[in-house]
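Severity: low
Component: inverse-folding endpoint
Summary: output formatting inconsistent between runs
Steps to reproduce: submit the following structure tokens with default settings.
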């Protein structure tokens, strides 16, 4: 690694720790069968997910959904520790699907736009490992966290959103309120589990 690469790598490490989280989502209808979800990303870190069926799940293809393309991406990470850093020309082994949420960090504000069919939530099981997971939110409208996650409430230790708000059932505290389209959420559970966002 030459001196310039070393400086850029240090800047990357700084970016990983100094972060701003923000995601918002809108839904537009192109025709009777095609829907588009726009997910707005603020500069820095976000956790995103989509309720639009992703046809091309290759990591490099996912970048094409960003308005500014892959050059604006610092890093994309999944729940299993797989990471994609385009600046370093690293091979991407993340396989995108609707049943997970993903971390993304961008240099500048950006937007995802996913167009296609809205997924059938009854056919998309969310699998959870014991400990921490990143879950998607698969409805196209907001709903109270306790309603959306009712099937696994008894096994939840903690849920966190991108702003640092938490749902802590042991203390009967819900600082998150509603789950919101476009967002992903960190969730810690006491044992392996699974659930559906039922229609």
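Observed output (run 2 of 3):
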């Amino acid at each position: 690694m030459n001196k310039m690469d070393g400086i850029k790598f240090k800047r990357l490490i700084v970016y990983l720790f100094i972060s701003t989280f923000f995601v918002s989502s809108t839904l537009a209808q192109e025709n009777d069968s095609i829907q588009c979800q726009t997910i707005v990303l603020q500069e820095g870190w976000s956790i995103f997910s989509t309720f639009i069926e992703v046809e091309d799940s290759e990591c490099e293809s996912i970048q094409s959904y960003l308005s500014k393309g892959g050059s604006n991406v610092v890093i994309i990470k999944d729940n299993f520790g797989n990471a994609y850093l385009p600046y370093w020309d690293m091979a991407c082994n993340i396989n995108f699907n609707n049943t997970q949420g993903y971390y993304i960090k961008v240099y500048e504000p950006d937007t995802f736009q996913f167009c296609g069919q809205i997924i059938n939530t009854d056919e998309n099981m969310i699998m959870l490992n014991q400990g921490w997971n990143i879950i998607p939110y698969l409805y196209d409208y907001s709903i109270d966290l306790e309603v959306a996650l009712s099937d696994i409430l008894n096994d939840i230790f903690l849920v966190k959103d991108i702003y640092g708000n938490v749902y802590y059932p042991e203390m009967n505290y819900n600082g998150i309120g509603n789950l919101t389209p476009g967002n992903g959420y960190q969730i810690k559970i006491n044992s392996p589990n699974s659930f559906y966002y039922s229609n």
